[in-house]
Write a structure and sequence with these properties.
The protein is of the alpha+beta class. It has four helices and 16 strands. The strands form four sheets. Strands 3-4-2-1-16-15 form a six-stranded mixed sheet, with no helix packed on it. Strands 5-6-7-8-14-11 form a six-stranded mixed sheet, with helices on one face. It has a two-stranded antiparallel sheet with strand order 9-10. Helix 3 runs parallel beside helix 4. It is globular and about 45 Å long.
Length: 280
Amino acid sequence: MEQKTTIRVASFNIGDFTTASESAGNDIRYGSGTQQTLEEFCAVFKKVHADLWGLQEDSEFFFYPEKILPYDALYKQILPNYERVFTRSYNGKAFLSHLKLSDVTPVSYPAAVTSYAPEGTNSYGHPWFLSGKIIIGGKEIAIVSLHLDWSCKERRAQQLDSLIAFAKAQTSCIFIGDFNPENLINGTLCQDGDSVAPDTKNMYKADWKKFDDAGLDYANGGRFGTFGTIMKNGVPASPYPWDNIVVTPDIHIRNVEVFYEPWMNDHAIVAADLEIDGTC
């Protein structure tokens, strides 16, 4: 008889290791962590108690100018296996897990054909996603940590199409990340009906429809509820979702939690308990 294995997955756009409490005041590349923010981050990681984390904006250092890496400052207190790729200030994406991580590599998006660049453009704010693999109950699962383009929905549509094509090429896949569902074209706010309300630029319903059409399920903005994950001084700055966990049909979302802390000043944490078919 087929058994099913569960795993707890979390997504966290962790920023530059600053919080509403304190900041070292460095550029995001160098990290603005302090002893106080280290204690805050460590406590919430332990509270979430995830088996697998997808991290975004994972800065090059936690403490600077000491050049102490995030793993050495924080992550090794949480889980042993950590793989990340860092390019430019905001493009640090990572996995953290007790599971063995393999084949971790960035995957570039193709040039996006847009209304303002019909010849195609590679000017993504986040030009690649981080892919990898884990094995759960004898079954190989493709994992992705991503950070989509916030400033252009035309570029982001290409990213979403690329991600869905990637998922369909896998037996099983989990997307973890900041999906940035904002209604702009090349940085200009649009008033075309894609936003979920007249007073917001969030257009998650239009973006999430691509997942629905592809048969994918998601933790935030659907049947489990809609959770605001952009934070300002400990409370959601918007009731709409930015961060999400998306899975292929053989993976079933059984529970969703969003973690809010009074020191959060960028993103909340989305966690989902997943049940995976075909494992033993």
